[in-house]
Structure formats: structure tokens, C-alpha cells
Amino acid sequence: MKSWLRLHRYALMVTLRRLAAQPFSSLANLLVMALALALPLLGAAILVSAQPVARQLSVTPEVTVYLATTAPAGTADAIAQRIRDDHAAQVQAVRVVPRDEALAQLRNDPTWDQALAVLPNNPLPDAVVATLTEGEHLAQRAGQLAETWQKWEHVDLVQLDSDWVQRLEAILRFARVGLIFLAACVAAVVLAAVFNTVRMQAMLQREEIAVARLVGATESFVRRPFLYLGALSGVLAALIAIAAAAAALTPLNNALLGLARSYGADFSLRLPGLPILAVAIVGTGILGALAARWSVTRSTRF
Question: Global pTM?
């Protein structure tokens, strides 16, 4: 056990000496990987911050049923009762908005008062507003109910008030797929950067590796410092990327604060939680070690 620890400690010290021997090139490689890693981190910050807002907005969507203006009196009450009877499990509340009440509400708004004053009669229809119950696939259920109610007699239009929420959820799904693709591209950048770094180090240490083999050094002994170089480069790049992303969020949140306040909301961007960041650091380190092993296997065959 002591011998195993001594070998790994030696490999780590060799790696640190090699990094210190070329500080500028080492720092340049780390910055390239860190900037690439910062992009999916910022994308993840936007998704993590936007998802709670989308869930909060889409909790209880409303479906509004507009009746034809020629519908007989009492049709709105009959349709409201039919909704309660046929869809009791999916509807939380149903209310009727008479056309006269809707017109009175619009006339209370100064921006509509003058326009409505020139109309000879009330152009608004009766409406039935159904608030759906919470649960899974809420947007899908709302769309199915709207399609069913649209076919009822005396119904002119069924409007799903949460259509824009569905669009927001679709945008978030698209963003998640895009983020996965971006992460895959960044992984390729990390692989290429570590591969080239290890390859250059192997070429620089060519004579040293040849002498070590002559005196009986095993392949594991020769390759171990390069594996540490790849893993350490990945971990350091991930740490720098997290610091850079956190620093970038400060001006972004300052600019976003004014926009959020104009809508009466409290919204700010934040990085994913510590477990996710820890997984990102470890994963980048493993990715760097794999790239280093691939490179050193190909670059030390002499």
C-alpha cells in the first residue's frame, strides 16, 4: 500500500513540475478549456433559473369558452354545468362571465371607454372560464379539453389562456436539447485540448521516457504522470470555468434586475447546485484522464 501511494505521489509531483516548467502554455490550455466549459454552465444557469418560473406560471391554466352572440339566454349556465358534470375530475372551478359584466369591466378601463361609447350594442359574447386541476401533463390535458369543447353547440371559440406557457415549455425543452449538444461539443474540445497537451508533453519527454524504459520502468510508471496531467487539467479547467461563470452572472443579474422589476417579478440567474457542479468537476477530470490515456498510448510508441 505504501509503495502504491509513493508511486502515485511521485507521479503527481512530476505532473506539477511539468506544469510549472511551462506556465504560459499550461495556463493558455486551461483558459481555452475553461472558457469552453463556461458556456454550458451559463446555459445551465439560465435553464435552472427559468424552470421554476415556468412551473409557477403553468400550475393552473384556464380555458375560456366563448359562446356565439346568437346563443339563447341561459346557454352559458348550461355549458358551465355540463363542464362540471362531464369533466369534474379535470376541472377545479367553473365560472360564467356574462356579456354585460364583461362590457362593464371594459368600460371601467379609460382606454376602452371612448371606443365602446360609439358602439350601438354590446359586441361581447358570454364566456365560461374553467380552471383546471393540477397534475401531470397539464398543458396536454388542457389542449384536449379545448378541442372537445370547441365541438359543442353554440360555442364560437375556445381559447387556452396558457398557450404562451406551452410555448415557453417548448422553448425550455429545445434549450435542454441544445444544452446537451453544446455540452457534447465542449467535451470534444476538452478531449482535443488534453490530447494535444499530453502529446506535446510526451514528445518533449521522449528521451526521458526512453531512458526510463531502459532501466526497467513499466508502462504504467511511464504513463501515470500523463494521466494525472489530463485529470488535473480537467479539474482545474472546471474550477476556473465555474469561477468565470459565477463572475459573469453578476453583471447579467444587474442588467436583468431592471427588466424583472418592470414586470413586478423577482428573477435572477444562478448556477446549478453544488452536487451538479461537483459532478461536472469530477466528470471533466475523468474526461481529461481518458483523453490523456488515449494520447499517451498513441504518442509513446517508440
Answer: 0.60
